[in-house]
Specification:
Blueprint (H helix, E strand, L loop, with lengths): L1 E2 L36 H19 L6 H16 L3 E7 L6 E8 L9 E2 L4 H8 L4 E3 L11 H10 L1 E11 L2 E11 L7 H51 L13 H13 L6 E4 L6 H11 L7 E5 L5 H9 L16 H4 L4 E5 L6 H13 L1 E3 L6 E3 L3 E6 L3 H6 L5 H7 L2 E4 L9 H17 L5 E2 L1 H9 L5 H15 L4 E2 L19 H15 L10 H5 L3 H11 L6
Parallel strand pairs: 8-13, 8-14, 9-10, 10-13, 15-16
Antiparallel strand pairs: 1-3, 2-3, 2-7, 3-4, 5-6, 6-7, 11-12
Helix pairs in contact: 1-5, 6-7, 13-15
The structure holds adenosine-5'-triphosphate.
The site of adenosine-5'-triphosphate has 21 residues, from helix 7, helix 13 and helix 15.
GO molecular function: ATP binding; sequence-specific DNA binding
Protein name: Transcriptional regulator, NifA subfamily, Fis Family
Keywords: Activator, ATP-binding, Coiled coil, DNA-binding, Nucleotide-binding, Transcription, Transcription regulation
């Protein structure tokens, strides 16, 4: 005997097969007198087989249902002497029948699994709940069943019994029995019993479908719960729950940037924010996300320069429990947290090469695996990346993958440095004054004229961040309604680039000067990072890039 599903599960015929070798209930039309010659022993054996099957299917785990239906079909074929038996499912009102398993005697082909053959009259009748008893094919077919008649002639199918199976009022499946090259009769009491068996199968299948759906729904709830917990803890740690600033500007160049952001926001395009440190790339990422259709989901941020490669992989992609020593619990990564929302990859130019390939895969296919995991996770994330490095040059130098660069560079937006949007200096200064006035309780009415002029003249290597820091320091020192901003502690304007210096030379010299003034103290109040208006991690990665170290 051959079968079509689960070739490994052996066909059993342990139900007592009639010793006479005459299959009970099976009647050759040419010998109709045999119909009544069914011994009591055979009937009992068959009833026992039905009882066994009902008991087996009552508590079957979902994943075993189809294999057990197939094994049961094999027992029925064997016991009752059919040539072939198949079981199919109508998944819903509109989908075609799907053959789930089929077994056949040696020499007879099983019904191919998957979508059923195009037999419109046959499947139409079954779907409408009609029992098909066709002892003599093709003679028993109605005239409109032309395709079925042709099929019968070509395949040698001579007799068929097909029973529609209802669960909860809907026809959800079909069990079919066939004989080839000879006709068969299908006595009423056999049909009644086979219908009961078919319904046992259909009930088990429907239950397994419900259980699988329930398990999937529960897994989804667990996933969402984990994500929500992780999101909450991320937002608590990062203090990112603040609403995005809606930016304004007096500068035509910066207004053009804002226009570009407004245009890109409603699309799903990856946006690459370029510009010197402190120009407002992160603030702009907030604005972009807030203007996008993803605003109801979080904007998750990762600074690629802040963590070593090993940690950043876990941070981005999460890890499975036991991924490495100390990984006690499963942890979703930032990509999962950002599912449905946006991910801001700050300092993307610092991403280690080995992780660039993994990032490229998420950008291309939306999939990745957690560290220590094999399950592929699919996410829908809009990426916003930022860098103050020249990525094209990094590609040439071999430090950045070219394919990733092109993926990121879909919609590049370059933020002008503050010295090229001086129109914004007074206005921004007042924004910060108002902010610190409120928090410090120090009302300020004027900015000293020479201070404002100095602010306008200054070169602003640390851009808006540096302006903010200077105003904060001035506010702390303020004693009256007039604010005096001391630019002496800011880097001197002599660091302004000259025609002969490149920007990189100038940057290096400027950072070196501040490092020396601060005795190479990077962090804390008055440290080099604060003086330069940089995040300490940014300064460290900048120093690495420029080859600046105390010894060197
Ligand atoms: N247009 C703006 N209005 C108000 N504040 C701003 C504006 N632009 C930048 N800032 C402030 O300047 C500081 C630096 O901004 P941000 O972190 O966005 O810069 P960045 O370009 O991402 O810097 P880095 O490259 O160092 O990460 C922040 O405190 C931010 O609030």
């Amino acid at each position: 005997m051959t079968k079509n599903a689960n070739p490994g599960s052996g066909i059993t015929s342990d139900a007592a097969r009639p010793a006479s070798g005459v299959p009970p209930f099976m009647v050759d039309r040419r010998r109709p007198s045999n119909a009544t010659e069914v011994s009591l022993a055979e009937r009992l054996a068959f009833e026992r087989l039905l009882g066994d099957l009902s008991a087996l299917f009552a508590n079957l785990p979902p994943e075993r249902v189809i294999a057990e239906i197939e094994a049961a079909l094999a027992r029925l074929v064997d016991f009752l002497g059919f040539d072939r038996s198949s079981f199919g499912e109508f998944r819903d009102e509109d989908s075609p029948i799907e053959v789930l398993c089929s077994v056949a005697r040696n020499g007879i082909e099983t019904t191919p699994l998957g979508v059923g053959l195009p037999l419109p009259w046959y499947f139409g009748a079954l779907r409408s709940g009609q029992l098909l008893v066709l002892p003599d094919l093709p003679a028993d077919l109605p005239p409109e069943a032309e395709i079925e008649a042709e099929f019968s002639r070509q395949s040698g199918l001579r007799s068929n019994l097909s029973i529609p199976l209802r669960v909860g009022g809907r026809v959800m499946g079909v069990i079919a029995f066939s004989a080839f090259h000879r006709t068969r009769a299908w006595p009423e009491d056999l049909i009644v019993r086979l219908k009961i068996v078919g319904e046992v199968f259909a009930q088990a299948l429907a239950r397994s479908r419900r259980e699988t759906e329930l398990a999937a729904a529960l897994a989804e709830i667990t996933r969402l719960k984990e994500r929500l917990e992780a999101e909450n803890s991320y937002l608590r740690q990062s203090g990112c729950a603040r609403p995005a600033q809606m930016l304004a500007s007096r500068s035509p160049r910066f207004n053009q940037v804002l226009d570009e952001i407004a245009q890109a926001a409603p699309t799903n395009a990856t946006v690459l924010l370029l510009g010197e440190t402190g120009t407002g790339k992160e603030v702009l990422a907030d604005t972009l996300h807030a203007l996008s259709q993803r605003r109801e989901r979080p904007l998750i941020k990762v600074n690629c320069a802040a963590l070593p490669a090993s940690l950043i992989e876990t941070e981005l992609f999460g890890r499975e429990k036991g991924a490495y020593t100390g990984a006690l619990a499963r942890q979703p990564g930032r990509f999962e947290l950002a599912d449905g929302g946006s991910l801001f990859l700050d300092e993307v130019g610092e991403l280690p090469l080995e992780l660039q390939a993994k990032l490229l895969r998420v950008l291309q296919d939306g999939v990745f695996e957690r560290v220590g995991g094999t399950r592929t996770i699919r996410v829908d994330v809009r990426l916003i990346a930022a860098t103050n490095r020249n990525l094209a040059r990094a590609v040439q130098a071999g430090g950045f993958r070219e394919d990733l660069f092109y993926r990121l560079n879909v919609f590049p937006v370059t933020l002008p440095p503050l010295r090229e949007r001086r129109e914004d200096i007074p206005w921004l200064a007042w924004e910060f004054i108002k902010h610190f006035s409120d928090s410090m309780g120090k009302p300020i009415e004027h900015v000293a004229e020479d201070s404002m002029q100095a602010l306008l003249d200054y070169h602003w290597p640390g851009n808006v961040r540096e302006l903010r820091n200077l105003i904060e320091r001035a506010m702390i020192l303020a004693r009256g309604p007039t604010l005096h901003v001391a630019l002496e502690c800011a880097p001197a304007t002599t660091t302004r680039p000259t025609a002969t210096d490149t920007l990189a030379d100038n940057e290096r010299a400027h950072i070196l000067q501040i490092l020396e003034q601060t005795h190479w103290r990077i962090r804390g109040a008055g440290g080099a990072a604060e003086r330069l208006g940089l995040k300490p991690t940014t300064l460290e990665s900048r120093m690495k890039r420029l080859g600046l170290s105390r010894s060197g």
